[in-house]
Write a structure and sequence with these properties.
Strands 1-5-4-6-13-9 form a 6-stranded mixed β-sheet, sandwiched between helices. The protein has a 3-stranded antiparallel β-sheet with strand order 11-10-12. Strands 2-3 form a two-stranded antiparallel sheet. It has 2 domains: 222 residues, D-Maltodextrin-Binding Protein, domain 2 (3-Layer(aba) Sandwich); 186 residues, Periplasmic binding protein-like II (D-Maltodextrin-Binding Protein, domain 2), CATH 3.40.190. It is an alpha+beta fold. α7 crosses α8, α8 packs across α16 and α9 packs parallel to α10. The N and C termini lie far apart (45 Å). The protein is built from 17 helices and 13 strands. It is found in: Periplasm. Keywords: Signal, Transport. InterPro entries: Bact_solute-bd_prot1 (IPR050490), SBP (IPR006059), TAT_signal (IPR006311).
Length: 439
């Protein structure tokens, strides 16, 4: 989709006048809240982002983009790709030096090709000062060697999504947050005919999210602080043994599940609990069908369980925008990013998607969307509390490539499928990781 000068009424008063060279303006050049970038003459933009799971997300993004075009006259084409296709398309754009100006991608993808990306430190530092600062994990994802190579958009936060009546039928007032109690609840749910189900295929969000959370919850990790591979450990084996037992309570077929499968299974009444973003609740809540409205009333959310380490160890599907050096209109692209991240656009976008993306900037924790419905609230602090992929090492080519290779997901899947013992799977995964981490 695209927005053109011919189709939209331009507001000349909204177009900023740039300062020569820097392209930044503001009263006296000092007021951060007035920063803007002067788009290049005749600028057009192409933006590639992931396809929606929540209709309100895409609809409000398009509406905000229309506002941007009305203000600046810059035509914007938006392409939407499946979650699994964004990463390879971004890699191709980086390698060939052509394609979309901006790609909204996953995790630490910018760290695979930082030399191909425009430094967006001016945009990021302005937004950070204006909106309460970036959460530490967002800054870790966005920066490399002191400069911002990505602009964090947030994360499709994941919680445990469950049917309250079924969990209570299984003997629990609410879904538990202790690993051992989770296992007891899962067994009871299966016995009542309401098995759990969580993705063990190469699912960008759901698959990566819950298995990393459990690995870290037992104290396992791919690498240590010195980027040395330490995956083959007693802690990893303990996590694998636990998930193998948990998997026995799952509905059949989860070894091939991608990010949409658990949504469909939950809404069809086939499973009683899963890990997911707020998209399941959104679909049920906005449905016009009475049966789905009843499901929405029975849905509850709770933050991801805490393991033996005694603190949250969550991984969420982090997403950030990359501005590529092949763009002919970097000022226009920066202005688009600034505009879309400002409160006037960002908060309505969050609200339209009922909190589907958890913010990376602290000020947006006060967005009314998080308290307007108590079922939204568990998603509010997902980014604030999360760890980064590649924990506890550095973000860079190795962490990004290892994530893209699904090493951790595959390790758990091999054990659940019975193809490897926990010890064998840990050894095999460590060898795969060592291909990328060469300290």
């Amino acid at each position: 989709m695209s927005f053109t000068r011919r189709d939209l009424l331009k507001s000349s008063a909204g177009v900023a006048v740039g300062v020569a060279g820097a392209g930044l303006v503001g009263p006296g050049g000092a007021a951060a809240q007035d920063m803007s970038f002067k788009p290049e003459a005749g600028a057009t933009l192409r933006v590639l982002r992931w396809r929606r799971f929540v209709a309100g997300d895409e609809e409000q993004w398009v509406a905000n983009t229309k506002k941007f075009t009305e203000k600046t006259g810059v035509e914007v084409r938006i392409d939407n790709e499946s979650w699994e296709d964004v990463r390879p398309k971004a890699a191709v754009a980086a390698n060939v030096g052509s394609g979309p100006d901006i790609i909204v991608g996953w995790f630490d993808d910018p760290h695979q090709y930082p030399d191909k990306l425009v430094d967006v430190s001016d945009v990021a530092e302005y937004l950070g000062k204006k909106y309460g600062g970036w959460y530490p994990v967002a800054e870790r994802y966005g920066k490399k060697d002191g400069r911002w190579i990505g602009l964090p958009l947030g994360a499709a936060g994941a919680c445990m999504v469950y049917r309250k009546s079924w969990v209570q039928e299984a003997g629990f007032e609410k879904f538990p947050q202790d690993y051992r109690e989770v296992l007891k609840c899962a067994k009871a749910l299966k016995a009542k005919g309401h098995p759990m189900g969580m993705a063990l295929g190469n699912a960008v969000g759901d698959g990566n999210g819950w298995v990393h959370t459990i690995l870290w919850g037992f104290g396992g990790k791919m690498v240590n602080e010195n980027n040395e591979v330490v995956l083959n450990s007693a802690e990893t084996v303990a996590a694998l043994e636990y998930v193998k037992e948990l998997y026995e309570t799952f509905i059949p077929g989860t070894l091939s599940w991608l990010d949409s499968n658990n949504n469909k299974a939950f809404l069809a009444g086939e499973i009683g609990a899963t890990n997911n973003g707020i998209s399941v609740y959104y679909a049920a809540k906005t449905s016009k069908e009475d049966a789905m409205k009843a499901v929405a009333a029975d849905i509850e959310h709770v933050n991801m369980p805490i393991g033996p380490v005694g603190k949250p160890t969550e991984l969420h599907l982090f997403t950030q925008a990359m501005l590529f050096k092949h763009s002919k209109y970097p000022n226009a692209a920066k202005e688009y990013l600034r505009f879309m991240w400002e409160k006037e656009q960002y908060e309505p976008w969050q609200q339209a998607a009922i909190g589907y993306i958890t913010h990376p900037l602290a000020a947006y924790a006060s967005n009314p969307i998080w308290t307007s419905d108590p079922k939204h609230t568990p998603y509010r602090d997902c980014v604030k509390n999360m760890q980064w992929n590649g924990f506890a090492g550095d973000l860079g080519y190795a962490s990004a490539a290892a994530m893209a290779d699904y090493i951790i997901v595959n390790m758990f899947a091999e054990v659940c499928a019975g193809d490897q013992t926990p010890k064998q799977a840990a050894e095999r995964a460590a060898k795969r990781a060592e291909r990328y981490y060469r300290v």
